[in-house]
Amino acid sequence: MLRPRIIPCLLVKDGGLVKTQKFSEPKYVGDPINAVKIFNEKEADELMVIDIDATRLRKDPDLKLLQNLANESRMPLCYGGGVKSVKQAKAVVSMGIEKVAVSSIAVENPNIISNIAEEIGSQSIVAVLDIKKKTLSSNYDIWTHNGTINSKLDPVEFSQRLQSLGVGEIIINSIDNDGMMKGFDFPIFEKIYSHLTIPMTIMGGVGSFSDIEQAIQKFEYIGVGVGSFFVFKGKFRAVLINYPTIEERDQVILKNHHR
Fold first, then answer.
1. Is the pLDDT of residue 209 over 50?
2. Which domain, by its residues, includes 168?
3. Using CA atoms, how far apart are residues 165 and 8, in angstroms rounded to an integer?
4. CATH number for the domain harbouring residue 149
5. Residue 191: pLDDT band by 50, 70, 90 thresholds?
6. 197 neighbors 163 (Cβ within 8 angstroms)
7. What are phi and psi of 251, to 5 degrees?
8. Which of 6, 17, 54, 126 could form a disulfide with 101 if both were Cys (CB 3.0 to 4.6 A apart)?
9. Residue 60 DSSP label
10. CA 140, CA 154: separation in Å to the nearest integer?
11. C-alpha to C-alpha distances, 173 to 45, 79, 159, 186, 195, nearest whole angstrom
């Protein structure tokens, strides 16, 4: 049976682990390899690693860092950042990384999804859509290049297009809620989710375990991406990596699974 997944999301910049708020002011919080070791011990469901500067600075994926992460990780890994070609996607999965996430290239050239899926399988290709609410409107746009370029694409329609092209999973990340730890923007997530038949992961806003619980309650088989809440502790945002125990996860899933 498919289960909801609770996924720590690690942001990497210059080889270090950082956290952002609304995609800006990256704060250094430590070494990504150490974070992977801790999440291994806590038996995380899956792990997402995103290089936030790779696309903006036109950098290729850091294969040396990826190899180190893959060697260390005992859980499925998803990597995103700088992947622009089928060749690069193949190089990433050849490291032992299960999923490759693409973002700006999927917006600029959606057909690359089909090409990558053909080579590495649909289950291994993920599209990350960073979304932001339009001013004075209830609609949203997809932004790329670490939230600096507005594609003016509608996330509901574009998600469906990517699904038809063979993407295996869609990750929706709310720029407005990134790092704010004030809860999810559920209405837009629900709208996108209702049009998809493939797995979806939501990110941006988790500030408590009840936010995760609420997401699992609303969506049967969801991936819940979590950044700041698993890295910071207390109102002074002291760095302390944490993750719910297996018992806590099972309890939430049993409580909220209706089938």
1. yes
2. 5-256
3. 27
4. 3.20.20.70
5. very high
6. yes
7. -60, -45
8. 126
9. P
10. 6
11. 19, 15, 13, 12, 17
Domains in the chain, number: 1
What phi and psi, each to the nearest 5 degrees, are found at residue 201? -125, 140
Query: What residue ranges in 24-156 does DSSP mark as E strands?
Result: 24-30, 47-51, 77-80, 99-102, 125-133, 140-144, 149-153
Catalytic residue among 45, 53, 62, 130: 130
Concerning whether 154 is annotated as a catalytic residue, the answer is no
- Mind listing the pLDDT tens digit for each residue in 21-73? 999 989 999 999 999 999 999 999 999 999 998 878 889 999 999 999 999 99
Residue that has been written with the tokens 């049993």 in this structure: 254
| Phi, psi angles (nearest 5°) of residue 234 | 80, 175
In terms of DSSP bridges, do strands 125-133 and 99-102 run parallel, antiparallel, or are they unpaired? parallel
The position carrying tokens 């009840």 is 210
d(CA 216, CA 211): 9
Q: Sign of the CA dihedral 255, 256, 258, 259?
A: negative
Alpha carbon distance 82, 136 (integer Å): 33
For 100-138, give one letter per residue: b (16+ CB within 10 A) or e: bbbbbbbbeebebbbbbbeebebebbbbbbbbbbeeeee
Give the bridge partners for 202, in sequence order: 172, 224
pLDDT tier for residue 1 given thresholds of 50, 70 and 90: very low
Task: Tell me the one-letter amino acid at 126.
Answer: V
